[in-house]
């Protein structure tokens, strides 16, 4: 009963969603679309089901999962306490790409929270995800549906590339929208703290609740991250990737040097600059004039470099404002923090 038979091609095709929901209820792991990236879901109240997520992804067991819900009612069973600031945020951003950290209730699987005293919860803004969770009628623990360390999936075929044969099914809802994962916000600390930048920007949060800060680990690699997942190399393409701060001419020169060494080169750019570069593989990732389009395509483009079999990738850099903060965070992780600055 592998994915090929289980792909649900039409989000309006309710019988297939019911099939996926019943797999979840039976303790199976099923991939599904959200507005950020595809998630690999399992019943958060079932230890054995949750273990299947870790096994399929090859995910370290000390990295906790986000619990996905479809209604505020489901939150009561998960959070021991709901800070006032969280109420405002849920009102403003749920359903949406914002994950909130709550003190957890007794009885929540240790497998989900990796032994922490807190639980991460979000309500995804995607009709298929919401219908699936409602139909399954259980909270759904779901990390991104990629093999650990690979770029997150923004298309059902990405999930199949990584997890075919390892999970019970994939619900195909087409391309996800935002393209980078949700913002993870700890609202139990005195000043709410972004543990992972994502689909909801710092600026948007601050409009609703005032000052928010970025976890120190996001600026300083040596600091201990509060979000365990942030310490792992993530989103990595197979070829080494470097982010270039400088002119297009400078980036092109780097490409020439690598080509002279006999390497197959890749350039990650945007539609505006695509025609400028001469490299073996030049991929446009959205439009620089609209960073949301760059975020939406990033993981797909990283996977395409893998498929093209390049030896080295040079990427343009982007402004770190708004959605650019999440975009640059993911790009820097994909590059293992390799940055080349023009002198
Ligand atoms: O957009 C998303 O958030 C996607 C979709 C599927 O919803 N999910 C996702 O899950 O990105 P995952 O597992 O790839 O990332 C979850 C992040 C990790 O960095 C993890 O360490 C952090 O959330 N996290 C989970 N529970 C936490 C907790 N109790 N405290 C701090 N960080 C937590
Ligand atoms: Mg992930």
From TrEMBL:
Q: Where in or outside the cell is it found?
A: Cytoplasm
Keywords annotated in UniProt: ATP-binding, Cytoplasm, Nucleotide-binding, Nucleotidyltransferase, Transferase, tRNA processing
SUPFAM superfamilies, alphabetically? YrdC/RibB (SSF55821)
Classify the main location: cytoplasm
Which family, according to the similarity comment? Belongs to the SUA5 family.
Can the keyword Heme be found in this entry's annotation?
A: no
> Which one GO biological process term can you cite for this protein?
regulation of translational fidelity
Q: Which PANTHER family does the record associate with it?
A: SUA5, THREONYLCARBAMOYL-AMP SYNTHASE
* Entries under Gene3D superfamilies matching the protein: DHBP synthase, Threonylcarbamoyl-AMP synthase, C-terminal domain
Q: What is this protein called?
A: Threonylcarbamoyl-AMP synthase
Residues binding L-threonine are: 36, 68, 118, 122, 142, 182
Function in brief: Required for the formation of a threonylcarbamoyl group on adenosine at position 37 (t(6)A37) in tRNAs that read codons beginning with adenine.
Q: Quote the EC number.
A: 2.7.7.87
